[in-house]
Fold these 4 entries.
Entry 1:
Amino acid sequence: METAYLIETVIKIVVILLIFSALAGIGTYFERKVLAFMQRRLGPVNVGPFGLLQVAADGIKLFTKEDIVPTNVVARIFKIAPVITAATAFMAAAAIPFLPSFTLFGYEVHPIVADINIGILYILGIMGVGLYGPLLGGMASANKFSLLSAARGAAVFISYEVVTGLSILAPIMMVGSLSLIDFNEYQAGGFTTWIVWSQPVAFILFWMAAFAETGRTPFHLIANDHEIIDGFGTEYSGMRWGLFFIGEYANMFFISFVISILFLGGYGDGSFLGALGLLGKVAFFFFFFLWTRAAWPDVRPDQLMWLCWKVLMPIAMINIVITAIVMM
Amino acid sequence: MFEAIAFYLFAFLTISMFYIAVTTSQALYALSALAAGMIFISAFFFILGADFLGAVQIVVYSGAVMALYAFGMMFFDTTREIKEKQGNKAIVLGLSILSAILVGAIVAAPIVGNNIEALYPMVEGAGNTQEVGMVLFTKYLVPFEVAAVMLLVAMIAGIVLAGKKMDLSLTLMSEAEILMMKEEDKNKKALS
C-alpha cells in the first residue's frame, strides 16, 4: 500500500513538473502573441508555423548560452536564487487539485499531490517564499539596480502577504475549511453557489494581490524594465535567468488555478464538463494577466504601498467584520 | 520507514543550516541559512501530522527573516565579508556551555518529571486547524488575549515612533514655506 502510494505520488509530481515547465515555455509564446495583437504588431512569425517553434528556439538559446557568474557577486547565493523561484513555484502546486478525480485503466486517480487539510495556507506560504528568489538574486548581484529591486521585493512581500491573507479570511470563514477540495465542494451546486457572488470584495482584493505576488505588470516593480534595467535579473544570463522566467510563469498558472477554485466554483460537480470549465477559467485568468500588461502602465513604489496599506487592507478588514456580523 | 528517512534528512538539513548561520561571517549566507533552517523545521510539524502549525511556521518565519534581510540591506554591504569583533573567548565559551546545559535541562524536564497528561484530548472528527482553535480559545484564552494586547501596544508604539512629522510633506509645500520652516528650526536651535 505504502509503496503504491509512493509510486503514484512520484508519477504525479513528474507529470505536473513536465506539463507546467512546458506550459511556462508556451506561456511566453502566448504572451508575445497577445501583446502583439493588442499593440498591432505580428509577434513571432518566422520560426515554424505561426512562430510556434519560437519557444524551442528560445529554449536552445537559453540552454546553450554561456553561464556567466560575474566577479564580486556572492557566488553561492547568486547561483541558488533562480532555483528557489522555480522550485517554490512547483512546491506550491502540491496542494492544488488540478482536475476532478477520474478513473484511468480501472484505477482511481486524484490529480492532487498531497491533499493536506490546510491547502490554501500552504500554497500562499510557499508562494510567498518564492519572493526570496528575486530578493536573494538582487542582494547577491553586487549591482545597484539589483539591490533596489531586492529592496522592492522585500517591501512587496511584507505588504501584500497581508492583503492576500486578510482577503481570503472571509471566504474561509464561510466555508469553514482551509482545504481547496472543501472549497470546491462548497460551490458544487452550480453557477449560483459560487463564492464570488457572496464575496465579490474578497475576490477583487485577492485578484489584485495576485498581481503583486506574481510580480506582473501593474505591480511589476521588482524587475521594472524602464527604471531599474531588469532588476534582480540584470546580472543573470542563460538558463539561470530562464529559471526565474519558468518560476514566474508557473506561478501565474498556479495562482489562476487557486483563484478559479476559491471563488469561481473550481471543477464544479466533477464531471467532464466541470473539468473543462476549470481549464477555461484558468485560461481566462492567464489571459487577463497578459491583457493588463498590454493595457496598464506600472505604478510607482509609493503608490503601491499607499494602495496596499491605505486602501486594500482597510477594505479587507471591513469585509471580514461585515462577513462575521452577517454570519452571526 | 519513510517517516524515519524524512526525519533524519530534515534533522541533518536543519542542524547544518543553523550551523552555517552561526559560523559564517558573510551576512547573506547567515540570513539565507537562517531562513532555510526555519523552513526546514516546518517539515517536522508535517511529519507529526500538525499541518496547520507547519504552514504557519513557513508563513511567519519567512516573513520575519525577510524583515531581517531589509535590516541587513540598510546597515551593511551584504556582498562583503564582515569582520567580527572577537571578545573575551572564555566568556563566550562559558555562556555557550551554560546555555547548552539550560536547553538540555528544559528538554529533559518533562521526561524526568514524567507527569505529562493530555488534558485536552483530540476531538473526533475535528481537523487540525479546529483543534488549535479549540485549545487556544479555551485553555489558553488569557495568554492569547495578553499576547494580542502586547502586539497592539507594540503596533501603537511603532506608529508613534515612525509617525513624527508625518503630516508634513516637503513635496506638497511651496519653496517659501520650506525656507520658513528652516528658519524656525534655526531659531529653535539658537534658543536651546
Note: The radius of gyration of chain B is 25 Å.
Entry 2:
Amino acid sequence: MDRLDLLKKDWDNSDSKYPKLSYDEIYKMILKKSSSIVKWIFIISLIELSLGLILAILNPSFEHKIEYPKWLDTFSYLMFPVIFYFIYLFHKNYKKISATDNAKVLMQNILRTRKTVRYYILFNLIFGGIFFAVASFIAYTQLEGGIAAFNEATSTTKYVVVIIVILFVTILFLGIIYGIYYLLYGILLKRLKRNYAELKKLED
Amino acid sequence: MNTELEHSFVELLEKHQNIIHKVCRLYTNNYDAHNDLFQEITIQLWKAYPKFRGDAKFSTWMYRVGLNTAITLYRKSKRRVNTQDFEGVAFKMKADEYDDTEEEQLKLMYKAIHQLNDIEKALVFLYLEDKDYREISETLGISEVNARVKMNRTKTKLRNILNQ
C-alpha cells in the first residue's frame, strides 16, 4: 500500500519534528494532577458512597417529632454493614485498576468498579424507597391522630389514595435520582464503553 | 516523594519522550489537545513507575501506558474549539526534503487516521512502530488472530476513507 509506506517513512523520520521537552518541563508535569476518567469515577463514587452513610446517620435526627416503630429503626441500621461491605468492594476494585494492564483488562476493571457502585446506588434507592414510603405513611397516620384513629376514620378509597400518592411520589423521587445518576455516568463512560465494545466485538 | 525515583523517571522520559508525542500525534489534532494528552500520559507513567520492574523495556512499557491513557483513561478536553489545527501547520518537513505532493498526501493520511476510532488508531500506531502481532495482542488484550484481522480491516478502512 503506497500511501501507508509513505506514512511509515514519514513516521520513522519524524523524531526531529516533535517538540523537545526539557528535564524541568517534564519534572513540572509529574507534579500536576491527573484528570483521568478513573480519578473522576473515584471522586464521584466517594461522594455516592458517603451519601449513603450520611443518609443512614442522619435518619434518626429528622424523625424526632414523629414516633416510628422500632422495626423501622432496626431496618435502617441494617444498612451500615452493607454500606461498609460496598466500600470494601469499591476499594478492592479501585486498587485493581492499573494503567499497565492490557487495554481490555483495564477497561474491564474500570467497568467493574462502576458496576459495584451501581449496585450500591440501586441498593440505596430500593432501601431508601421502602424506608421513605413506610415512613411517609406512618408520619401521615400520626398527623391524623395515630394509626388506630386513622384506620377508623378513613374510608377505603382514602386509604388507597394515600398509598397511591405515597408510592407515586416515592417512585418519582427515585426515578429522578436514578436518571441523574445514569446521565452522569453515561457521559463519563460513553467513550470507554464504545472502545470496550469495539474490542469485545472482535471475539464474537 | 522519592527524589531519586523522580530523577531516574524524568531522565528516562526525557530520552523517550517521542513515544508520547507520537501517541498524541495520532489521537489529537491540535496543540492544546496534544499538550493535554502528553501531560496526562506523563502523569499516568509516573503513577505506574514505582511498579515498573525493568524486566520490560522502558519504551515497551511506555507504549502500553501511553495507549491505555489515550484509549481508556483520558477525558478529552473541551478546550479544543477555536484552537489551531495541526494540519498544514505543524510538523512541516525540512526544506531539503520538502515535496509538495508528498506533504499533501501525508496531510490526507493524518486526517484519515483522525477519523478512525480509538482502537483502530492504536492499531495504526503499533503498526507504524513495527510491533509484531504478539505485542499488539498483548497490548490490547485480544488474540493474535484477532489482532491480524483487525489490522487488515483497519488498513482497508483507511484506504476507503482516502479514496472517498
Note: Chain B has a mean pLDDT of 84.
Entry 3:
Amino acid sequence: MHAAVIVFPGSNCDRDLAVAFRNAGARVSMVWHKDTALPGGVDVIAVPGGFSFGDYLRCGAIAANSPICRAVVAHAERGGYVLGVCNGFQVLTETGLLPGALLRNANLKYICKTVELRVETADSAFTAGYSAGEVITIPIAHHDGNYFADDDTLARLRGEDRVAFTYCDNPNGSVGDIAGLLSHNRRVLGMMPHPERMAEAAHGGTQGAALFDGLVGRFETA
Amino acid sequence: MKARVHVMLKNGVLDPQGEAVRHALGQLGFDGVEGVRQGKVIEIDLAESDAEAARARVTEMCEKLLANTVIETYSVEIA
C-alpha cells in the first residue's frame, strides 16, 4: 500500500503521519504542495496537522487552493482514500470534500490534551479496527476545532452513519460532539484528534494505531 | 479601482470572539451592549476600470477563496 503525505508550509505533523503509516506497513511518499500531480500508484492521501500558511484568512483555506489539492480532490472523486487530521480536516472541509466547517474553539483557547473519543461507526476502512461504541484515548491540539454544520447537514450525517468519532466530553463546542466524520462514500475521513500521536508505546498509548493498521490492511486483503 | 469586501459569520453561527469582545466591553462599564459580531474587511486594488466588471470579479474571488459560504456571508463595495 502506498500512502502520500502532503506537506504545506507550516505543516508540523507530516513526519509523524509518515511514521504511523510506515509502522502499519505502508510505503510513504512526501508530496510538496506546489506539485500538481501525485506519485503513481498512490492508494491513500494523508493531509497532516499543523498551521498551513500560518492559518491566514481561515484555517486550511489557502492550502485547499494549492496546486496539489486539485489532485487530492480528483483522487477522492475517483473513489480514492483520503485521511485529514487536524489542519488536514480543516483543509478537507475547505475543499468541499467534507461538509461543514471548523470554527474557533468555543472557549477561545488553544487546547492541547488527551481526550476520550467514542467510535461511532466501525463501517469504514479507517474505523474497521475498532468496534462501534468503543472508547479510545487520543490527543487533540487545536485552536479551531469547533465543528459546525447546519441542522440539515447534521441530520444527514447522522442518518448516513457518517459520524466516525465523537468527544466523550466535548472540549471545543463542536455540534453533536463531532470529532471526526466520513464522506458519503466512506473513503474520506476528517478528524481533529491525532491518531498518529498515540500509535506506539513511546507515545503513552497505541489506540491510534488501529486506524492505520485498518487502512493499510484494507489494501492487503483486497 | 478599489474593492472592499466585508466577511461576517452567518447569523446562527456562534461567534466566540464576538462574545468575548461583548463580555470585555461589559467589564469596561459599557452598558447595553446586546451583541457583538466580529468579521473581516479585505481591501483589494484592481487594474479593472469598469465597476460592474470589478464587482463580478471580486464576487468570484469571494466565492472561491475570500469567504467560506458554509459559515460566512460577504458583501462587496466598489469605489
Note: Chain B touches chain A at residues 9, 12-14, 16-17, 20, 64-66, 68, 70-71 (CB under 8 Å).
Entry 4:
Amino acid sequence: MGLPVRSFDAVIVGAGGAGLRAALQLSEAGLKVAVLSKVFPTRSHTVAAQGGISASLGNSQEDNWLWHMYDTVKGSDWLGDQDAIEYMCRMAPRVVIELEHFGMPFDRLDNGKIYQRPFGGHTQEFGARPVQRACAAADRTGHAMLHTLYQRNVRARTQFFVEWMALDLIRDADGDVVGVVALEMETGECMILQARATLLATGGAGRIYASSTNAFINTGDGLGMCARAGIPLEDMEFWQFHPTGVSGAGVLITEGVRGEGGYLLNANGERFMERYAPTVKDLASRDVVSRAMAVEIYEGRGCGPNKDHVLLKLDHLGPEVINHRLPGIREIAIRFGGVDPIKDPIPVVPTCHYMMGGIPTNINGQVVAPHGTSPDEVVPGLWAMGECACVSVHGANRLGTNSLLDLVVFGKAAGDHAIEWLKANPVQKPLPASAADLSLSRLARLDNQKDGESVTEVGQDLRNIVQRHAGVFRTGEVLTEGVSKIREVAERVKRTAIQDKSKVFNTARVEALELDNLIEVAMSTLITAHTRTESRGAHARDDFPDRDDANWMKHSLYYSADQRVEFKPVRLKPLTVDSIPPKARVY
Amino acid sequence: MGEKERVRWRCRRGMLELDLILSRYLEARFDAMTEVQKEAFQSLLEYPDNDIWDWFNARTRCNDPEVEPVVGDIIGFAMRI
C-alpha cells in the first residue's frame, strides 16, 4: 500500500461541538487521540448556532426533563427513538452545568444561575404553556461552546490534524473499522490513521441543496465514507427548511420582515399567499409559506431567468421602517441578493437548514446496521455523533436548541463508551492489505480522468435537482423525475476531472472529493423521499398528506451499493418511563 | 507558489455569510493586492468568525491596526450592488 501509517487509540473525524466533546472525554482518560478537521477547529459550523442549548434546569420557570422529552417526541412527529430522547433530555442539565464549569460564558440571572429564554416548541406540562428552557451565551452560543471545548482539548493534549480531509473508512475482513485514510491539504499526500476507535463527527450535508444555510464545508463527508463502506444511512428524507433564504446565497431573511408587512410575489406580480392562506396570507406558518413558494416555482411562476425564486417585497414599508425596525436586512439583501430592498424586492427561496437523518447509531454513539435478525447490530470500532449521526433524537423534525444539546450529550456518551470499549479491546487489529486501495483509486481516477466532467457544473446540477425535486414540495411525480435525474448526475460524478493537478492546497481536488460525498447524500435523500408515501414532520408529500402510523412509523435505511431501502422499527420504549403514545402533532 | 491556494482554502469558514463574502473578495481582489495587503488579509482570516462578522456589520470595531483597513475595504466591496 505504501502510505505512511500512524497509530492512535482513537481517531475523530470532525472538530465541531460533537467531535471536540468526544475528544475531551478520551484525552482526559489518558488516551492517544487524533482529531482531523478540514478547517481550524473553532471555524467549524457549530459557530453558526445562535439560538441556544436546551436543558430543563428550571432556573427561570419550573421545568422537568419529562416535559422536555415530550416536546422532543412531539417535535419528531413520533419518528424519534424514545430511549435516545429520554437519555438526551435527562442528561441535558448535567452536560450544560458541565459546560458552565468548563468556563462557557452563559448569560446569567441576577442570582448567578444560568438565564433561560423561551423558544418555539418548549412547553411545561406536556404542551400546556410555553417554558423558558434555552440557555445561551448572547447570540454566540455555538461559538462560545466551540472555543470552550477547544481550549479544554488543548489542555488535555488532544492532537489536532488541521486542514486534513478524511477520505475513507478502513474496514477489515471481519467488518471492523480500524481507522481512516486521510489527505493532508498542505502537501496533497495521504496517510493512514490507524485506530482502535474511529469516531465520525462530520456535521450536516446541507450543501446538497442549491439554497442552504450550511457553510461550504458541510458536505456530508462522514456519510459518504459510511455509504462507500457498506453502512446504511438512516431517515435521509427528513430535512428542515426555512421559508426565506436569499436566492443563490442561502443567507436567511428573518420572518420579522413579513411580520412588519413585507409580502411575497410570483413572476406575474401576484401576491400568491392570498390563494394558499386567505386569512393570514404571508403570516401563515413556516411550513405553509415554504410549500406555497415551492409550488409557485415548481408550476413555472418563479422569477428570474431560471424561474427559480419568488420575490419578497418590502419597499412599500419605506426606508424608515426598513432601517429601524428591520436592522441588518438591507445589508443582507445588498450583500447576498444584490438588491437594495428600499427600491427593489429581495429574491428568496425555501432554504435547507438541518439534516435530521444520518449515520445510524445507538445511544452509546456506536454505529449500528441490520444484521441477521437484529436491526441494530454494532459495527465494531465505529461511532458517530452530532448532526452526521441519526440516533435518532430529532426524528422527522428537530426541536429548536436540541441540536447543540445533541452534540454535547452524544459527543460525551460516545467518548465514554469508546473508553470502556478500548479497555475491553486493548489490542490493535492489523490493517488489511487493501487498507488504502479505495482512497488511492479514487485519487488516481481523478488525476487520470480524460474528457471528464467539470466538478463545478456537476455540483450545480446536483444542487439544483435536489432543491427542485427534494425540497419542500414533494409528490410522487416530482420525486420520480428527481430520482431519474439524480441518477444521471451520479454517473457524471464518476467522471469528474480537475485541470489543476498540483499538490499544495488544491481546492479543486478537495471539492471533487467532497462531491463524491454529496452525491451519496443526494441519492439517499431522493430515493428515501420517493419511497416514503406519507407526510411526517419535515417530509410533506402532496399525494399522501397524512401521517400513516400503521405503515410508516419506521426508520428508512438506504444502502448505496444497490440503492436499496430497508426499514427498522422506531424505538417507542423509553429507558425508564412510559412510552409517549402517538397523537396528532398540532401546535 | 501555493499562497493564493492556501488563502482560498482558509476563506472556508464556519459561517456561510463569511464563506460568501471572503471567497468573492479573494477572487476579485487578491491578485492585485500588495504584499502588505495580502498579509493583512491573511491576518484577518486568523480571527474568529463571530468577530469578523461583527466588524462587517459595524457591531464592534476592529482594533487591530494591520487588519482594520482590509475590513473597511471588504465592507465597501460587499456593499456594491
Note: The first strand of chain A starts at residue 5 and ends at 13.
